[in-house]
Write a structure and sequence with these properties.
mainly alpha, 53 residues, elongated, single chain, 60% helix
Length: 53
C-alpha cells in the first residue's frame, strides 16, 4: 500500500525520473558537454573503444 501511495503522489517525468532527478541529470550532462567542448575530456564512439586503449 505504501508503494502505491508513494507513486501516486510523486511526479514522474516522461523519462521515468522525478523532477529533481531529471534536473540533476541535465545539470551533469550540461557540465560534461562543456568539458568535452573545451577539450578537457575525450569522447568515445563505443564502449569497446573506451576500454580498448
Amino acid at each position: 500500500m505504501e508503494f502505491v501511495e508513494f507513486f501516486s503522489s510523486t511526479s514522474i517525468t516522461e523519462n521515468g525520473f522525478t523532477p529533481s532527478q531529471e534536473g540533476e541529470l541535465v545539470k551533469i550532462s550540461d557540465e560534461t558537454l562543456k568539458q568535452f567542448k573545451a577539450g578537457k575530456i575525450k569522447g568515445y564512439k563505443s564502449a569497446k573503444s573506451l576500454f580498448d586503449k
